[in-house]
Amino acid sequence: MELSKENRKKLALWIIGIIAVCSLIFLGVQNIGAVAGAVKWGLKLLAPFVTGCGIALVLDVPLQFFERHLFTKTKKPFLLRIKRPLSFGISIFLILGILFGVIMLVIPELVEAIKVIVGIVTDFVNRLLAMSEEEILELPLGEYLLNTDWKNLLVSAQNFLKTQGGTLVNTAFTTIGSVVTAVVNFGIGFVFAVYILLSKDKLSHQIIRLVNAWLPEKAGKALRHTAVVARDNFRNFIAGQTLEALILGGLCMIGMLVLRIPYAPMVGALVGVTALIPVIGGFIGAGVGAVMILTQDPWKALVFVIFLIVLQQLEGNLVYPKVMGKRVNLPAMWILAAVTLGGSVGGPLGMLLSVPIASTLYVLLREATQNREKKLAQKAAATETVTEE
Q1: Which of 93, 186, 204, 219 has the most CB atoms around it within 10 Å of its CB?
Q2: Residues 147-164: tens digit of each pLDDT
Q3: What total of structural domains would you count in the chain?
Q4: Do the Cβ atoms of 70 and 83 come closer than 8 Å?
Q5: Within 13 Å and on the Cβ side, how many CA atoms surround 206?
Q6: CB contact at 8 A, 258 and 307
Q7: Residue 117 contacts residue 295 (beta carbons within 8 Å)
Q8: What domain range is 351 assigned to?
Q9: Using an 8 Å Cβ cutoff, are 293 and 304 in contact?
Q10: pTM of the entire structure?
């Protein structure tokens, strides 16, 4: 078949493009260290803006809720203009209020619990120093305590601090620098999120114009549809994760009241808030709660830890898939698979992002499969019609 001049030009461009892409891949593999460094530098540079997009995505959920319920029947231009800024302010106030309330509820009791534990340890040490050898031997670990060379242990600790002091100081400064950098990135990201949320309609219009101007119609349509599906899934995931945290906190408080474990409202609120943090959130809530309960009743602290472990397992395998499955249109089996795979690949962040990403891919694949089946059915029907004729 003879190719036209235009087709030959397109074929030449495709060949040149394929050669260029293959060359770039080859050079990238040959210089993988430099490529990894460049990617790391780029991610570090874009970290505040990625953080800002994440903050905007989270805050957009309550913001949209308040926008739908504020000034619904008014047509006054002033009220319509302040509708979004007011919704944004209420969202910030609500989130900060919840965090501040939990902190003020938990921190004072935690400080008191630590003081009680320090007092118990100090009292035990003072009593130990006043005991005779016979009295110490009667203790459960009396022989070990008596045979331990505390002086040599103290000298070893001092030598360790002398030899490793510089390393510890450097580590402390590095940690402080990382914390400061994270705070600065969060601040810049928050300001960026404010701009995104307050002018999201304008930004959306500009992005659509760019896509329509620079991409083919079919590719632009597919990209816009993918963005809409991803946006809806991320919003539903955030709402579902919040609901799941409220359920876990409520069940924890009810269970503690039934088992007569102290600090039930405080620990329940703390577990609910920390449940928003993937993987480590449950351990944080369990650890802080156990320390607080330990000062009142060590046996109740052990019961609380066992109860919370069982509750998290039941909630994670029964409640979580049901709640998130309805929110993100993903079957429970695939939610568990996504969380497991995301945790293996990306740790806590991978677990956090795995469900909405998997849901987006699931919806897009389902739609593509349905369209493919529809086309095959139409083709089969057309073939049968031709055969009958």
Answers
A1: 186
A2: 666 667 667 776 776 776
A3: 1
A4: yes
A5: 6
A6: no
A7: yes
A8: 216-379
A9: yes
A10: 0.72
